[in-house]
Structure to design on (216 residues):
């Protein structure tokens, strides 16, 4: 992210701005926050935004993990992040693979109340999607702790190889940067005893802002 870039001469000013926003010191009338023009590039549509953040994605995005580590689009909702990620995924030249989850209720009596068809429609923010589309070269974010301190919730990876039941990826944030890791398909659970067997990851060109709270 921008506040992590040592070569950005405006990074310190931008970091202070973020702290002031978080402390509520910059609120104007109507609850709006004024961001100085010298600290941002204004765009007027989503396509322009993705081009500014990920220029020449089909070339740079599949060659350099440091380039991916330095950027992300923050969104207010999980749905918007998913839409952006799907659009950017299409730009990569590698073959897209679709992974379908296996959804089920934990308690047998719950099957009467919650059909498999209904479970397929659920898309909670902290669970992987029912249909997970992945491409070699795309960034992914881990959605839960697997093996601390390296394989933690919100760790980001660069996908190297996609297998039927395992993803081989390179860690590019947090502890273990540059190391390879293997991510299996595992169950994720929902509050009413629903579980989804799927890779515990999401593509992360765009990330819901709540996912990075306290980690920027």
């Amino acid at each position: 992210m921008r506040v992590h870039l040592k070569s950005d001469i405006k990074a310190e000013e931008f970091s202070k701005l973020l702290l002031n926003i978080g402390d509520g010191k910059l609120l104007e009338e109507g609850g709006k926050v004024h961001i100085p023009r010298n600290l941002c590039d204004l765009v007027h549509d989503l396509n322009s935004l993705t081009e500014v953040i990920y220029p020449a994605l089909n070339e740079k995005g599949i060659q350099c993990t440091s380039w991916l580590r330095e950027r992300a689009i923050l969104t207010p909702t999980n749905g918007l992040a998913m839409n952006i990620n799907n659009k950017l995924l299409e730009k990569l030249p590698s073959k897209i693979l679709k992974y379908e989850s296996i959804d089920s209720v934990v308690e047998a009596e719950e099957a009467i109340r919650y059909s498999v068809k209904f479970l397929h429609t659920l898309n909670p923010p902290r669970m992987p999607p029912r249909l997970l589309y992945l491409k070699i070269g795309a960034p992914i974010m881990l959605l839960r702790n697997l093996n601390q301190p390296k394989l933690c919730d919100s760790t980001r990876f660069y996908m190297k190889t996609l297998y039927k039941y395992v993803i081989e990826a390179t860690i590019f944030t947090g502890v273990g940067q540059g190391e390879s890791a293997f991510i299996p398909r595992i169950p994720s659970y929902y509050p009413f005893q629903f579980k989804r067997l799927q890779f515990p990851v999401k593509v992360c060109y765009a990330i819901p802002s709540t996912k990075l709270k306290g980690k920027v």
In short: The chain has two domains: 1-29, 40-211. Residues 1-29 form one domain. DSSP finds six helices and twelve strands in the chain. The chain has a mean pLDDT of 84.
